[in-house]
Amino acid sequence: MEASKLYHAHPSKMEARHIEEIRKMTAQQRFEKLMAIIEISYLLEIAKPISK
Fold first, then answer.
1. pLDDT by residue (tens digit) across 4-33?
2. What's the whole-model pTM score?
3. What pLDDT shows up at residue 45?
4. Position 22 in a domain
5. What values do phi and psi take at 48, rounded to 5?
6. Confidence (pLDDT) at 46
7. What superkingdom heads the lineage (predicted)?
8. Which residues are CB-contacts of 33 (< 8 A; sequence separation ≥ 6)?
9. Is residue 52 part of a domain?
């Protein structure tokens, strides 16, 4: 697995980079990424708020 890099550029360039990155993924990889996003979203939705 490649090490992640942080990219800081104009939003249009960042969007183009993300689109190109997704196009290079297989259907299985895109599905796994989608499921991970859904799982995180669900966990955040059901998480108890932090009380002070």
1. 677 788 989 999 998 999 999 999 999 999
2. 0.61
3. 93
4. yes
5. -75, 140
6. 93
7. Bacteria
8. 25
9. no
